[in-house]
Amino acid sequence: RTMWQVADRFMWRIPGIGPILDILHAVKGTPSECIKLLKSGHIVVLSPGGMREAQFSDSMYKLLWGRRCGFARIAKEAGVPVIPVFCRNIREAVHTFPWRDGVLRSIYERIRIPVVPVYGPWPVKLRCYIGEHMSSPPEESAEDYAQRVRVVLEDMIEQHQQRPGRTVRALMERWTLPSIES
How far is CA 65 from CA 1, 47, 75, in A? Predict the structure, then answer.
């Protein structure tokens, strides 16, 4: 089994990046491509918040999924469970500037290309938590399935992430025990 990462489509427009993404088993993440991979027995890793969440979320670790439920539709059609994963301190590893909302968000929503300047990465302590697999009965809608996954992921964040996130604290976790027992 191969693990495939869903990457934003704009990545393939960057000169020289496409071949690297192919080596890293990244896919553009169309529903048909994801379903094909899953039905072939592969693992597909995706982030429902995608590039929007990466650019515009903050140290409170709020999910920015909107009404996205494509991941749930894909899982239902492929007949596979969703496995929620949360990575503690992930938003402390790379920062976006605090003035990113407003004009930059408006530009992003129009052109769907990341426009927010970032700084980092910081060598913070990252710890990933893997939840129980979540299957969906046939009668459950993709929207309801996505909402169940969202609630579980928000619970994982509540349990494992001290908020607001702080880079210095995340750096110190490399040498000390975390304040929230994991």
Answer: 28, 9, 17
pLDDT digits (tens, 9 = 90+) for 80-130: 999 999 999 999 999 988 766 788 889 999 998 888 888 999 999 999 999
Determine how β-strand 118-119 pairs with β-strand 95-96.
Answer: antiparallel
pLDDT at residue number 81 = 98
Instruction: Give the Cα separation of 57 and 84 in Å (integer).
Output: 18
**What integer is the mean pLDDT of 66-86?**
97
pTM of the model: 0.89
Q: Name which of 64, 83, 73, 62 is nearest 145 in CA terms.
A: 73
Distance of CA 95 to the CA centre of its chain: 15
Tokens 């880079």 sit on residue: 167
- Categorize the per-residue pLDDT at 29 as very low, low, confident or very high, splitting at 50, 70 and 90: confident
| The pLDDT of residue 164 is above 80 | yes
| Exposure string for 26-40, b = 16+ CB within 10 A, e = fewer | bbebeeeebbebbee
How far CA 85 is from CA of 108, 109, 140, 160, in Å, comes to 26, 26, 22, 11
The angle at the Cα of 117, spanning 129 to 68, to the nearest 5 degrees, equals 50
Burial (CB count within 10 angstroms: exposed 0-12, middle 13-18, buried 19+), residue 48: buried
Q: State the Rg of the chain over Cα.
A: 17
